[in-house]
Amino acid sequence: MIRENLPKEILKHLTVVEMKVILKAISKPVKGTKDVLINRIQTHASDEDIRNHTDKSCFVLTELGLEALEKYKNVLWIHKNKRDIFRYPLFYESKFDEYYFMNHWDLDPPNTLIDYYESENSGIVARIYQIENNSEKSFLYGLRKLTEEINLQLEKCKEVGWFNTCRIRRISLPSRKSGIRRTSVL
């Protein structure tokens, strides 16, 4: 799935100073931007010249590795985004993780999660739409989640009788137009 790089594949990971060392060794000009230096090295330096003047190496995906990444791109998506989607404490309670999508590699993570959480947790759906750059739906589901939270807190207040401590009293305030009575909460 991976292999060690070929000498010319490391060039984009070298610094300008490291590229200038290679160019000096093969007696070529050292002035120019990084892209110009890379092009000059690729044109004039052999693999042996590059190996002799740099000790850096990296690993490169093989064709099989690229195919695996394409096949399991949903696993990469959930790994990259799950902390943003399932904030604490949901992060530890979610049934959707890399293992789930590894076993269901043909599913589309955003749509799967939206379908599952749409009626359960508007906040998760809002964050998924935000990750998918759908600001309008993200805002609407975020607003829905906020409304759900406000309603939940109001219900809790009703349960403990907080609203029963308020008295509504009618106060007659003179009005310039007519004798309209106004109601005030004390």
Which helices and strands, and how do they pair?
Elements: E1 2-4, H1 16-25, H2 34-44, H3 47-52, E2 59-61, H4 63-71, H5 73-85, H6 90-93, H7 98-103, H8 109-117, H9 122-131, H10 135-160, E3 168-171, E4 182-185
Antiparallel strand pairs: 1-2, 3-4
Distance between the termini: 73 Å
Share of β-strand residues: 5-15%
Protein structure class: mainly alpha
Mean pLDDT over the residues: 83
Quaternary? single chain
DSSP summary, beta strand count: 4
Domains, number: 2
Label the overall shape.
Answer: elongated
Give start-end ranges of low-pLDDT stretches.
168-173, 175-186
Instruction: Determine the fraction of residues in helical runs and give it as a percent range.
Output: 55-70%
Write the element-wise H/E pattern from the N-terminal end onward: EHHHEHHHHHHHEE
The biggest beta sheet, please? 2 strands, antiparallel
InterPro entries: SAP_dom (IPR003034), SAP_dom_sf (IPR036361)
Pfam families: SAP
Protein name: SAP domain-containing protein
